[in-house]
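Handout, page 2. Input:
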Amino acid sequence: MRGTDPLVELQTDLHPPLSAHEAAVEADRCYFCYDAPCVTACPTGIDVPLFIRQIQSGNPHGSGKTILDENILVGMCARVCPTETLCEQACVRQTAENSPVKIGALQRYATDVLQAESTHPYQRAAATGRSVAVVGAGPAGLACAHRLAMYGHSVTIFDANQKPGGLNEYGIAAYKTVNNFAQAEVEFVLDIGGIEIKSGVALGVDMKLSELASQHDAVFLGIGLGDVNAPGIDGESLKGVENAVGFIARLRQTQDYKSLDTGNHVLVIGGGMTAIDAAVQSKMLGASEVTIAYRRGPEQMNASEYEQHLAQTHGVVIRHYLQPLRYIDNGSGYVASVELEQMSVSDGVLTGTGNTTILQADQVLTAIGQKLQSAPLEGASLELKGNRIVVNADRQTSDKKIYAGGDCIAGGDDLTVSAVQDGKLAAEAINRQLA
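Output:
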């Protein structure tokens, strides 16, 4: 295990912010389409032409307010949202010129200007006397809490971690969110007032869902998935083998990057954003060779084409149609290499070919998805589908007093922007119910 000094690269913005002049020039590129496809492509429904027009007219404060009205956590979304597959993919200029308007960068510019001001852009309504419990201080929970507080309800957020932020604090690559931005955005959300956070409190351990429901007028669950999938193969207990989610969380919370154990030959198993983040960060920490092994082809990878290219430009090798069979011991309880089987697809069915290869690896990071923890929901009678919580369009569960959002719900995903929309929709529904 070894590591070089990664401070410069890990603490440098992946995408430097636009200057006022650059933002004005980029805003001029927008066609301000009627019935703009970029608005439909945004999970939170931000009025993209309007906020860009406000930047163009020299009103970044108004632009930022337009954006935050729909997405209170847009600062983080502007930094990590896969705009290349959402709003920018739908941009008319992308279709005509293969060069979309930089919507994400313009969002960041406008909201950075607004959030730098001393006056908070939102006022809390008069207290209603109603209380809502929010479980999980991630994007869904924070978005829900802010909207409810804006309506005058009292909100208590319970979170198992010591720091709020959820995925934004513990699950996103360090090079995508520098200068402790996740916590700065949490403070911005809390500045509206009426929101209390209780950290280090886990649902299913320190409290039960039934207790929260009896003590509050409504409950919102933004608990995430909490557990990780494992390949279920020989050698998983070897030292040097760990899940990529835990690796990223450790990296995000460390004060000394040199103290992290970093493999010289790192193998990442998986094809999503977490796999890319873990691989790129391993390279930044000094690994000489980093390989991503994915069991299907590049077009099936959950990581966008942009993210795949980002990994490759950092020296990460991506190998497709490989599935791990076993982790091989070096004789001292540490992983030394991994045996993988070559896969093939016929009529959409993935099968093994019987041909194997062995890759050297003194660190293996698995990123093959997460699953819902059962403990938080023990004793509850919520309807589940595919081990996730079933909700309606208002994000209401089968228990009319309980709502849920984020990747813990059936049909949910692990995008910050989608979680924010879930929290916002649930808050609007809760407010209507309480009224």
